[in-house]
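Explain this record to help learners:
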Amino acid sequence: MLPEALELVVLAAAALVLALAFAPVPTSRRGLIAKGGAGLAGTAAVAAVPTFDLALLVLLALAVLHATIEGKRTLASRLRAPVFAVALLALGALFARVQGPDVVHRFAAVGLAAGLAAAIGLMPYLHPFDPEERITSSPIAWLAYIGPAVAAVMVADAHGLLNADTSAAFAATLIGLGLLNMAWGSIAAWLTENGGAAWRYSFIADWGLALSGFGVALTDGRRAALLIFFTILLGRLPLYFASRGEVRGRVATERPINLLVAAALAGSAPFAGFAARVLLLRGATQLFWPLALVLAAGMLLWLPSSLRLGRSLGVPRGRQAVGVALVLAINVAVGLYPLPLLAAARL
């Protein structure tokens, strides 16, 4: 198993433990264990299978399993995007393997990158979303819980299928998709009227950073992507889970805890998101310094939406307050000393 994927599966398991330990009282922990455990097992299977083709089959089976969870969207609408994504990925793999002109292999690079975006649910292939849907059946669970390990596997396998020139085209496409999702997610999270949709767009913005890190294709870029995934799994996802009651209509507040949460979501120092952004900018500077300027400008877009989302948390109490404090402490620890996390993934 790819070391990064293994580490992301472990982080997903830790996110599930946090959700079980600090979930609101009305939440069904039995349902969380069953559905979260099934998703974790499926994600581990995608990471463990030895070939790209088997990974696609397991991904499709996992999408079917997720689509069968009770929710407000129809089964057909849930399956449409994953089936399209698997078809794009399979077509890209086919083009990469056939003998032909360079343009065919470049189609392979574009198809693999587009298939990855469609599989995760990123721009321009957003999955249908209902803000009132349960988190276990929501596209947010797919984005934040299943997506990181799947993306690490798909990117590594795609580079294995492509040659040097088409790998460069694949990386450039990932950067383009990353910049698109950064801008769209950050601005939409700020401007949308619905609080649940704002959280969903904030995840998409973080994914834009992760795709850009994969596209930089240097050690610093891959490290940045891994740290972004850490902040999604053990930062944004549990904070979103804690905010669910507030998103559904309670009064937002602007207390010190809300400002701390906003700082963590925006990737400010000393949280883990800041270390990820520093690594990404350093890698982008080594690759092509104007790209670093574009990324730095894009990172400023996190501030307004993060303040909004921080306020939406309200004033956490009881076990939720303990959970939020623990999440912030973990992110500070990793932000100050990320080396153990990166060393475990051999980056």
